[in-house]
Write a structure and sequence with these properties.
heterodimer; A: 410 residues; alpha/beta; Rossmann fold; 2 domains; 18% strand; globular; B: 263 residues; TIM Barrel; nine-stranded parallel beta sheet; 12 helices; 14% strand; binds pyridoxal-5'-phosphate
């Protein structure tokens, strides 16, 4: 099946950077030559064994790959249905999947002779991963972070500073991830010669969505092989949370042509997918538009103005979604659902108590959907969810949401 | 021939340089911005660039970002921006209006419907920042077919190899972005800009107008001397943001226009 190009879901994007009608290169002329350079460099690297040798070496010795595929026995028992596996990318160095992609982009940046790295960050995980790899290679690192996120993700802000990065709080818009991305793009337009823009998810202009996906696809490749070893077969359902969609695309991509595998992406439902738009569910509650260099589903009003999303999870608080997800949604290869803040918080606690794993709020959304569907499924149904980040960064947010006063308790 | 083509033909016949002014539609509110726009031709403006507000203006600096926010907060939309152009056209059928903005509000309105509505409102050309030649099928080609000019930005990163691609489907004029950066940031320097304009003029018969980083009557003159004209945006918008009255804003615009026209 995977060799049948005409029936494959794995051949995108096309030369224009499109997945169906989604994707593309909607950037200003100043940036166009830069993304063409990047594309050429990436095309070269893709088939260059020395590039992948360097990646594999760092993945093994610096990141700690492969990450385990873990059978969550007590959670499985508790839910009483499908068998639940977790792909443990929260065990990676820096605590999330983000570093898989950052390594690839920084190696490219070095090959291109760029000395100044810029990044946007929401939860701060991508910022921390970028600051980390820049420290390792002695590169200057500037991270744009919405002022609101600087407030709610303080531990990560401090980590970035310790790692030598400059964190720029962004006050335009509502001060979240979308605004940080705008300011990173403004920086890049200004510093075109020496600067490499390290995007943290499968969004942005072509080639970013494809390139970031390819770097994250290590998650799905490992999971597939590990599942084979553990169960001798494919999982029945794979599930991941979606902010921009990089951990999800990383898990999904190697399974796209295994048509018997059900694929579910979980968006942030915030306070509920309602007409007050207090959520970040671009596919569930948005429509196609153009932002940050690509056409995709967006939260927007009737005039095409972009709306600010809402989620308890800073990493999911983005009004768009990677274009490949929009395509998978439209052709029906993947399903997309929304999970509310309250449901995610409940799954967060369940995971702590049954598995001794403190998950990030982002994968708690994926886990919440697992808790919804697993009880109804037979015991021989295998679910693989992406535990893409650990929750250390979120304990303050969760404490507040649960009414726990960190200041006075011990 | 659009109003833009006619205007540049007339300027050329008179041996004059063009002065182009950018105003954000609906900033700080619909009525005030209409009053400013109506006064632009008398202040010496040859071409009006009318900003279409957008929540995420990725190529703009704080001045124009804030102008867009003010306009959106006052209820400005794409439909109202076309209405503003139509209201201007009631008394002026010759000054060209170029709509400048980002693609999403246009895409959201529907390209076909937008082109009909824009033409009907008296818009003559479009500058859409996030539509490079690689995306010409989206709007550039349909716009030209509908009789609107599609004005492209050329930048310091547009090298000789890429220039033909940028010029290929451009009409009306070429907008040379004098700096790598966002609007309202660095200052344009005539000695840097001159050779770049010459390079572009060697490759096209279209007028080459320079913008980004022109803030004073003096720089309006020095830049216009080395090009076919100058564009000023942020410096004007800043005065609107400071609460200057329309007549104060127009007096400033006149000084900039006089600068360009003395070149
Ligand atoms: C742990 C974790 N998961 C998920 C995300 C969302 O990003 P993506 O959808 O690209 O995986 C983030 C973003 O910061 C994150 O930190």
């Amino acid at each position: 099946m995977a060799n049948d190009l005409f029936n494959s879901f794995m051949t995108g994007p096309d030369e224009q950077g499109r997945f169906g009608q989604f994707g593309g290169r909607f950037v200003s002329e100043t940036l166009m030559p830069l993304i063409l350079d990047l594309e050429a460099e990436y095309e070269k690297a893709k088939t260059d064994q020395s590039f992948w040798d360097e990646m594999n070496h760092l993945w093994t010795h610096y990141v700690g790959r492969p990450s385990p595929l873990y059978l969550a026995e007590r959670l499985t028992e508790e839910l009483g249905g499908a068998k639940i596996y977790m792909k443990r990318d929260e065990l990676n160095h820096t605590g999330a999947h983000k570093i898989n992609n950052v390594l690839g982009q920084i190696i490219l940046a070095r090959r291109m002779g760029k000395t100044r790295i810029i990044a946007e960050t929401g939860a701060g995980q991508h910022g921390v991963a970028t600051a980390t790899v820049c420290a390792k290679f002695g590169l200057k690192c500037i991270v744009y972070m919405g002022a609101h996120d600087v407030e709610r993700q303080k531990p990560n802000v401090f980590r970035m500073k310790l790692l030598g990065a400059e964190v720029v709080p962004v006050t335009s818009g509502r001060g979240t991830l979308k605004d940080a991305m705008n300011d990173a793009l403004r920086d890049w337009v200004t510093n075109v010669r020496d600067t490499f823009y390290c995007i943290g998810t499968v969004a942005g202009p072509h080639p970013y969505p494809a390139m970031v996906r390819d770097f994250q696809a290590i998650i799905g490749k490992e999971a597939k092989a590990q599942m084979h070893e553990a169960e001798g077969r494919l999982p029945d359902t794979i599930i991941a949370a979606i902010g921009g969609g990089s951990n999800a695309m990383g898990l999904f991509f190697p399974f796209l042509d295994d048509k018997e595998v059900r694929i579910i992406g979980v968006e942030a439902g915030g306070k509920g997918v309602n007409n007050k738009m207090e959520h970040c569910a671009s596919l569930t509650g948005g429509r196609p538009g153009v932002l940050h260099g690509n056409r995709t589903y967006l939260l927007q009003d009737d005039d095409g103005q972009i709306l600010e999303g809402f989620s308890i999870s800073a990493g999911l608080d983005y009004p768009g979604i990677g274009p490949e997800h929009s395509w998978l949604h439209e052709i029906g290869r993947a399903e997309y659902v929304a999970i509310t803040d309250a449901e995610a918080l409940e799954a967060f606690q369940l995971c702590c108590q049954t598995e001794g794993i403190i998950p990030a709020l982002e994968p708690s959304h994926a886990l919440a959907h697992v808790t919804k569907i697993a009880p109804e499924l037979p015991k021989d149904h295998i679910i693989c969810m992406n535990m893409c980040g650990r929750g250390d960064k979120d304990i303050f947010t969760v404490a507040r949401a649960l009414g726990w006063d960190m200041a006075e308790s011990d | 021939m659009t109003r833009i083509d006619a205007k540049f033909a007339a300027l050329k016949a008179d041996g004059k340089k063009a002065f182009v002014a950018y105003i954000m539609a609906g900033d700080p509110d619909y009525e005030t911005s209409l009053e400013v726009v109506k006064g632009l031709p008398a202040a010496g403006v040859d071409v009006i660039e009318l900003g279409l507000p957008f929540t995420d203006p990725m190529a703009d600096g704080p001045t124009i970002q804030l102008a867009g926010q003010r306009a959106l907060e006052a209820g400005q939309t794409l439909v109202k921006t076309l209405e503003l152009a139509r209201a201007f056209r009631e008394n002026d059928d010759t000054t060209p209006i170029v709509l400048m903005g980002y693609y999403n509000p246009i895409y959201s309105h529907g390209v076909e419907r937008f082109l009909v509505d824009a033409k009907d409102a008296g818009i003559d050309g479009l500058i859409v920042v996030d539509l490079p030649p690689e995306e010409d099928e989206e709007l550039c080609i349909p716009a030209q077919a509908a009789g609107l000019n599609f004005i492209r930005l050329a930048t310091p990163t547009t090298d000789d190899k890429r220039l033909p691609k940028v010029l290929q489907n451009t009409s009306g004029f070429v907008y040379y972005v004098s700096i790598t950066g966002i609007t309202g940031a660095a200052n344009a320097v005539a000695t840097d800009v001159g050779p770049e304009v010459a390079r572009i003029k060697a490759a096209t018969d279209l007028p080459v107008i320079v913008g980004f980083g022109i803030k004073t009557a003096e720089s309006s003159r020095t830049i216009a001397e080395v090009a076919d004209g100058a564009v000023v945006g942020s410096a004007i918008v800043e005065r609107i943001g400071n609460g200057d009255s329309p007549s104060e804003v127009l007096a400033f615009v006149k000084s900039l226009a006089d600068g360009a026209h003395s070149a």
